[in-house]
Amino acid sequence: MSLFEQLNRAAAPTRLRFLVIAGHAVIEHGFQRGTEDADILISRDDRHVWMKIVTDLGYKMIRDGGAFMQFESPEPSQWDLDLMMVAAETFGRFLATAKPATLEGVAIVVPSLAHLLALKIHASSTAEGCAP
User: What interhelical angle do 47-56 and 3-11 show, nearest 10?
Assistant: First the structure.
């Protein structure tokens, strides 16, 4: 079962939402991009629920940067997973303009191209120690 199918199934009972971001989302918008992991955007309010879901799927946390967490896959053939957190209000705005897509045969949602660019700028400024 693909990672995205596992995430959909785990999130469904509690109606948690997530957006696929980074490389996979860029590809869905029609641009070529290589990627070695899967990245999802979640509401900061759902952080602890998502941590439980991801660890219950067997993923091991390798880095917690506050607004960004990295997890290692339990299977070498499965994507590693990164979670990026934003305020609930921001997540709602991104979700409102998101685009449905299919990845690995699974229904997903990706942010608009404008929001993907905003995330990239935010991630770059956060990585450099700047205030978001």
Answer: 130
Decide: helix, strand or coil at residue 45.
helix
| Average pLDDT by stretches of 10, the chain with 132 residues | 85 86 64 73 94 94 91 90 93 93 87 81 56 38
**Closest to 40 (Cα-Cα) out of 7, 72, 87:** 7
Contact 68, 25 (CB under 8 A): no
d(Cα 123, Cα 86) in Å, to the nearest integer?
11
> What is the pTM assigned to this prediction?
0.81
Task: Find, among 129, 87, 95, 88, the residue nearest to 115 by Cα.
Answer: 95
β-sheet bridge partners, residue 70: 63, 82
Q: Strands across the sheet with 68-72, in order?
A: 19-21, 37-43, 80-86, 68-72, 60-64
The alpha-helical segments, DSSP class H, found in the chain are 3-11, 22-28, 47-56, 88-96, 113-127
Identify residue 123 by its one-letter amino acid code.
A
